[in-house]
User: Fold Type I glutamate--ammonia ligase from Agromyces agglutinans.
Amino acid sequence: MDKQRDFVLRTIEERGVKFVRLWFTDVVGTLKSVAIAPAEVEGAFNEGIGFDGSAIEGLSRTYESDLLAFPDPQTFQTLPWRGDIDPTARMFCDITTPDGEPAVSDPRNVLKRTLARAADRGFTFYTHPEIEFYLLKSSKYGEEGPIPVDSAGYFDNVPGGTAHDFRRRSVRMLEDLGISVEFSHHEAGPGQNEIDLRYADALTTADNIMTFRTVIKEVAIEQGVYATFMPKPFSDKPGSGMHTHLSLFEGDANAFYEPGAQYQLSKIGRQFIAGLLRHANEISAVTNQFVNSYKRLWGGGEAPSFICWGHNNRSALVRVPLYKPNKGQSARVEYRAIDSAANPYLAFSLLLAAGLKGIEEGYELPAEAEDNVWTLSDSERRALGYDPLPASLDHAIEYMERSELVAETLGEEVFSFVLANKRAEWREYRTQVTPYELQRNLEIL
Assistant:
């Protein structure tokens, strides 16, 4: 760590960095930033930077508000969109109390704590997100709603189009930040794009997702458009998900891989999926944390609505991707409910905790879904045991508030704050009178 600190201090001097942004997230997953001068960085490493945690969503209570942000030197990167004028760098921070204890309400610490639990069992947790978002002409919208930048569709090539240039610029910027990109393409909705990050350990991936959102927003501003990670900005177009591939490794060996087993999926892999399925409803208020998230889950466009798994079945909640011969290390499962607006630190914590619970309790994996689940009738789905995901945020809250797994994983303070925050959102939402109601009812009632 001392070597990494020395590297950071040397790089700041050699590159003439003028500002260093210290980044962390609140419990909802909003990125927070404080800029310090280069001369303050060494002190920040040793003593942290003090701030009022009670002013940040869910980080601390008013009577214990003093917190310290300690920059993690492993996350140091210069920010390419700042250019050569006043070069700026960033580091993610770990939040502690004044007596040096990790702040229990720091989302990054929640994930570190869950990863430590997995490490005690010999597991390293890897994630690989496919992040969807919409590009709009503006953040403003009129009677017709938001306006996408193009009318293209899935995998379309748009010569000279905004999305084409946008993805190229974004990918270059991500690579400059040390974030490897696997794929990028136009998605099914007009103005909708997807960029897939290469797999990494879950903490690195969560940091990368927070950086990714910032990069996408910055490139959009640069190109005169607006990027949104809202799960369902258009009622009649696909929502934006963040399908995430998950795997556990024991040392260098993929714990999900077993040659000769069905789909080459090990007992550990099957139990992990069983854990995801059994606890899917309980974790939904975090993996799908907004009122709008449930418009995506129940609005079609390949979003999963029912709790089941399948081999290469894109209508299932959990998918076991097609096995590639001689690539056992790539064995993984894909969780398809999580959306692009989730707090990645908390969402990954709960996905891991649910999977580990399946392994620890020896959950049995139910039969796989071979049919297109969306085309089955309700009675057929009931007969097959495919329970629905929560239909709305208030349903998700009801599941979460009864969940020992979520309470234990998040810790009392984060658990209580997430519930309070989501209840407040639901109260505000249910008092709204929407254009749909006015158009449908005003004249005839």
About this structure: The chain has a mean pLDDT of 90.
